Amino acid sequence: MSGENGGRIRRSGRAAVVVLGDIGRSPRMQYHALSLARQAHLEVDIVAYGGSDPHSAVKEHKSVHIHEMTQWPSNPRSLPKILRPLLLIFKPLVQFLMLLWYLCVKIPAPDVFIVQNPPSVPTLVAVKLASWIRRSAFIIDWHNFGYTLLALSLGRNSRFVALYHWIEKHFGKVANGSLCVTKAMQHELAQNWGISATVLYDQPPEFFRLASLEEKHKLFCRIDKSLRTPYSLQDCLSNEVLTTDNDNPNVTLFTTQTGSDISLKWNRPALIVSSTSWTPDEDFSILLEAALMYDRRVSALLNEDDLKREEVLWQEIKGGKQYPRLLFIITGKGPEKEKYEQKIAKLNLKRVAFRTMWLAPEDYPLLLGSADLGVCLHTSSSGLDLPMKVVDMFGCGLPVCAVSYSCINELVEVDKNGLLFSSSSELADQFLMLFKGFPGECDELKSLRQGVLASRSSVNWATEWEENAKPLISRVIFENSS
């Protein structure tokens, strides 16, 4: 790979991708690593925490080398409040020393460091120092602003937030180059931070695509047991009336295989997928309330008798009656997951069921490609980033209902590839509109899916990276080596 004016990458041609987080839960940085290896033909060292497996394409690429740092232990809930400020100082200090050890000793000297932001502290400080020691270029990939995330827990007026903001801005300005995820963020960086950034929109890689009927059936077979296990005693998927063919390995909640023929069940539930990090910037209660409203509103529309025996009611629900059962599969890991699972277990729902799970990297795209609708609860602490989960959903041909905020229209086009909502009631209305007559009718849902498929063009992660990221990386390496 050559820089401007014919400059060439020095040394052996290496890049270091730095993530102060779980690499398996950092898809954009995984895609950077793959592109650096495939398209720039560099040796790539990933320095990150372990925890979740990255995609097999990353693990198996001979030019990508993963270096897992020791994970910082979770903060004990019993820690006295008076000691928490000390933890805010001690934790980044330990992380700073560990990062320096890996970046300056454990990995070969790279031509360029590419670091994910946030977190900004101590990442940007450590990478800047390492880049000076090893005479490497230093690029920041701005996913969001770290100080706005910290403000969610400490408040905007916290001195720690103010210090964090100063560090993030100062070290952001001394980087050799910057990438960012939206035009709105590019404008903010230019106007208020004095930083020139190149927009690199998230795009799905090649393994996010439509799933075939055979792939859907095999996936549903693998997760069938989890789907039939409720959080409470029973629900509309686990009731005995609905699981009479539970012992048949060729029958799932959604599909049936007879010989070599696979078909979708006409009375299957509608499958809705949402991926969440279970953090405060994604209010999961909105989805719970919307599901409860859908359940109650459908009962009222159909004049269902609350006193009717449950097995009879569930048998009628299984038969269709205009509005389907809804199965919400919520993927992801995070601190608030257990709290919401307990809330789910207490809900009294007739035609709605929830399941949470963590899927293998290879199964997650298949789930998106098998679903009927995606839901995004991401609101953005800064209002300037876009949810990558929606990009992945679009890559799999899946229409989306997303929370409305300032720059989401850079990604979701209303009535073309998705819908926006601002409240749980609005989301419940969208469920009623999209799923009436499922699976045979649903003209609005089908129209959105066609819009998603029509907008899937030749632009993908590889072409976006080749056009925007590769020239920047080439330039900063050349300038740094001159």
From TrEMBL:
Residues 36-197 form the Glycosyltransferase subfamily 4-like N-terminal domain. InterPro entries: ALG1-like, Glyco_trans_4-like_N. Pathway: Protein modification; protein glycosylation. It is found in: Endoplasmic reticulum membrane. It holds the Pfam family Glyco_transf_4. Keywords: Endoplasmic reticulum, Glycosyltransferase, Membrane, Transferase, Transmembrane, Transmembrane helix. This is UDP-glycosyltransferase TURAN. It comes from Nicotiana tabacum.
